[in-house]
Design goal:
Ribosomal Protein S5, domain 2, Heat Shock Protein 90, five-stranded mixed beta sheet, 3 domains, eight-stranded mixed beta sheet, 26 strands, Ribosomal Protein S8, Chain: A, domain 1, 20 helices
């Protein structure tokens, strides 16, 4: 066994660089974080050859004094913390004091800086081979520039693991994107091989922030996003979450920031996944840009060298707050929210505001003030119809005859066909007169999904509105309405338990047995009575009445697994909702069921009043819209 000896400073820094400097993007992250911590309002990043040849980060921050320049490149040297108390409430992005020393040990690094009270700037240079700092005078405005050249020149084993120039720059681009999303108050410029890739001005107001989000995440994301802003018990969550219809095939548009720091956290991911649980189609992923603000003393950001992970003091509180906020926001989404996204996308595709079908007095506030369509499209205008006998056109006024009709008949007819819905007693009684499916004069009172005009192949409801043509999958829509009503009924009655005639014995690990014993009261709230009867044995004595036919052993194992991983479990609720979803599916109107115009309109009105009505409980869309501009394009109108 060799004798114990101290590592040389260069080797120690190179080992630290293995944790901090994975690739060029890691260097960019550390340097940009330092710039932001220095109060920069502008950060310019220049990259050559994917960052292997050159990484230059320039800022207009406070700068570094000449006397501190050599110390800035020393290991464990920082201006951001001084005592343990500072470490327990870190408010800065970079604070370990390892980044510059680690980077300089595997590159040729030059740092030029000037503070406000200095007449001239100073420059310090270091190479990974000898680590000796050389200081010289330089010309530079107030702020700092860091140049990193020939990354990994002295560690060829590390360099050969780098990917192609394009791949490495894509990682850099994503890193800058995250930093730009985290700090709206700073401007960013990113160049690659002298070509400007991103140029972002500081965003001071909500409109500028949305423009930055659109530039970095795509305009379609903003067009299909719901704005979040909620506060409770010292926590604030704000940002943008995409409608379920804007789901992704992979989790590539998910950004979560804690006190301005981008993180990846299992607890947060679970809360978001739970909020989207019954509105996403198979294996689809939600899109979001969210910001959580908490007391720095309640979150530990020092659990990982790259600071991508955090640990919350009260993880359960944070989880529940995120879940409740997103769950409510998604539940409050109604068809007019989806319509705004659809119309905005249509406008983008057309490349003209004229594609947006709403005027200043629009009933859809998201598109108010946009350009109106020609007057020939507005409701209440005289309709021109073709006279087949004479071959000429004649003007006829549209029919506006209405009659009140009790909706009870619709629900009774559904129940006779196996439906599970009861009619709301306070539902508006307003349907078309038989044979007159024409919109009312008062177009401002038009509901978001418009009015039914026909049924297609016994499957789809066709409706018209000022926006265009709306197509509704009547089974999927009624399934969501039924499902939400069943959930509300279950919540009102609480989850009832049913004792098992013969308790089920379950062999588990000692950790699982101890967990079940500790969380016995919480399991009871879920309708599960689980008793520890041995070091590695549990007895299941009661289960939720709705789940008496389910696999009891697997259910308890899944609940315990959730408790181990997340500190809580929604497994019982998930299985219960899955069962309700199956019941709702079987209890909804089936294909080829012929509906009358009043019945179809009643279904549309219920969709507008139902939470998450844009998707059935399997995550499939319940309706879509084809805007008038899209129809015009199909038939080459206006060309």
């Amino acid at each position: 066994m060799p004798a114990i000896r101290l590592l040389s400073p260069r080797l120690a820094n190179q080992i630290a660089a293995g944790e901090v400097v994975e690739r060029p993007a890691s260097v960019v992250k550390e340097l940009v974080e330092n710039a932001l911590d220095a109060g920069a309002s502008r950060v310019d990043i220049d990259i050559e050859q994917g960052g292997v040849k050159l990484i230059r980060v320039r800022d207009d921050g406070f700068g570094i004094g000449e006397a501190d320049l050599p110390l800035a490149l020393s290991r464990h040297a920082t201006s951001k913390i001084e005592s343990l108390d500072d470490l327990e409430a870190v408010a800065s992005l970079g604070f370990r004091g390892e980044a510059l020393a680690s980077i300089s040990s595997v590159s040729r690094l030059a740092l030029t800086s000037r503070t406000e009270d200095q007449e001239a700037a100073s420059r310090v240079e270091v190479e990974g081979r000898d680590m000796d700092a050389r200081i010289s005078p330089a010309a530079h405005p107030i702020g700092t520039t860091v140049e990193v050249r020939d990354l990994f020149f002295n560690t060829p084993a590390r360099r050969k693991f780098l990917r192609t120039e394009k791949t490495e720059f894509n990682h850099v681009d994503e890193c800058v994107r995250r930093q730009a999303l985290s700090r709206f108050d700073a401007g960013f410029t990113l160049r690659h091989n002298q070509r400007v890739i991103q140029s972002l001005r500081p965003a001071a107001n909500p409109l500028d922030k949305e423009r930055r989000i659109g530039a970095l995440c795509g305009q379609q994301f903003i067009d299909n996003a719901v704005v979040i802003d909620a506060e409770a018990t010292g926590l604030r969550l704000w940002g943008w979450v995409a409608l379920p219809t804007f789901s992704r095939s992979q989790a590539d548009l998910q950004y979560f920031f804690v006190n301005g720091r981008v993180i990846r956290d299992r607890l947060v991911a679970h809360a978001v996944r739970q909020a989207y649980r019954d509105v996403l189609y198979n294996n689809r992923h939600p899109a979001f840009v969210l910001y959580l603000e908490v007391d720095p003393a309640t979150v530990d950001v020092n659990v990982h060298p790259t600071k991508h992970e955090v640990r919350f003091r009260d993880g359960r509180l944070v989880h529940d707050f995120i879940f409740r906020t997103l769950h409510k926001a998604l539940a409050d989404v109604r068809p007019d929210d989806h319509l705004r996204g659809a119309v905005a996308q249509s406008a983008v595709r057309e490349g003209s505001e004229s594609a947006v079908v709403a005027g200043p007095q629009s009933a859809y506030p998201g598109v108010a003030g946009q350009a109106e369509r020609p007057a020939s499209r507005s409701w209440g205008e005289t309709a021109s119809v073709f006279d087949a006998h004479s071959g000429s056109t004649q003007s006829q006024p549209p029919q506006h005859q209405w009659q009140a009709r009790d909706q009870m008949g619709f629900y009774q007819s559904l129940n006779q066909g196996g439906g599970l819905v009861n009619a709301p007693q306070d539902a508006p009684a307003r349907d078309f007169a038989a044979g007159q499916p024409t919109p009312p004069v008062d177009s401002e009172a038009e509901p978001p999904l418009g009015y039914a005009i026909a049924q297609l192949h016994g499957i789809y409801i066709l409706a018209q509105s000022r926006q265009g043509m709306i197509v509704v999958d009547m089974h999927a829509a009624h399934e969501r309405i039924t499902y939400e009503r069943m959930k509300r009924a279950l919540e009102a009655q609480d989850l009832k338990s049913q004792p098992l005639l013969v308790p089920v014995s379950l062999a588990v690990s000692q950790k699982e047995a101890a967990l079940a014993e500790t969380h016995a009261s919480e399991l009871q709230q879920l309708g599960l009575q689980v008793e520890r009867i041995g070091p590695e044995t549990l007895a299941i004595r009661q289960v939720p009445a709705l789940l008496r036919g389910a696999d009891t052993e697997q259910l308890v194992r899944d609940v315990l697994a959730d408790l181990i991983e997340n500190g809580q479990s929604d497994r019982v609720e998930a299985v219960t909702h899955e069962l309700l979803g199956t019941m709702a599916c079987h209890g909804s109107v089936r294909a080829n069921r012929q509906l009358t115009i009043p019945e179809m309109n009643t279904l549309l009105r219920d969709m507008e009043a139902t939470e998450r009505s844009g998707q059935c409980n399997h995550g499939r869309p319940t309706w879509t819209v084809v805007t008038l501009s899209e129809l015009d394009k199909l038939f080459l109108r206006g060309r």
